[in-house]
Write a structure and sequence with these properties.
This protein has 235 residues and is an alpha+beta fold. The chain has eleven helices and four strands, in the order αβααβββαααααααα.
Amino acid sequence: MDTLFVGCHVASAPSPKRSHTKAHQQPLQEIRVCTNRACRKQGSFQTLETLSGIAPPNVAVKSSGCLGKCGAGPNLAFLPDGIIVGHCGTASRCLEVMFGGRDNSKTSLDALALRKRADVEFENKNFSEADLLLSQAIDLKPLGGLHVTFKCRSLVRMELGNYSAALQDANEALLLAPNYSEAYICQGDAFLAFNNFDLAEQSYLAALDIDPSIRRSKSFKARITKLREKLARVE
């Protein structure tokens, strides 16, 4: 694993799978959404957004090129089986392909709608209102997307200065999705707020181990700089 801090003690990052014994262990599946021209005209970007928002942590949703059934879109491919499913342009169809028509699946769409409203409130710095909306979404107990909602509420509660609750939400997200790099970053932020530098470092390293591309992120670099500055003050 990469070393982030030259001259500082670097603890080993916790293994995401071993650290959270209650995490779901279903095999990862993948849904590819065609975003080529024909499917794009039929609303595939909205389908991609909806499926990404309601997906459980064991299902990855990604865009793809043409799946060869133009005119029957938006088209999806289920991997690794390679099954192609067409006419997925409505929210109800998204629920059907994701959850197989389970009776309580609509709660995932309702929770997603609340999370989108919370995103707007967060951007407007209405953090208390965002917290309320995300709490309502969590109370719905959606079939998918719950790990993302806990992560979002962790971010909100950091802004509210409620670091204990922010840490708890990050941990809840990781219980549901132990390979969720964004939740590890939230966990690290909470540890950093408590000046628990070793644990903050471990969390950031775990995020980097899962997604090495974040090394180039300005926000991730800013976190590492902040951690280094805090470490320098106590040395």
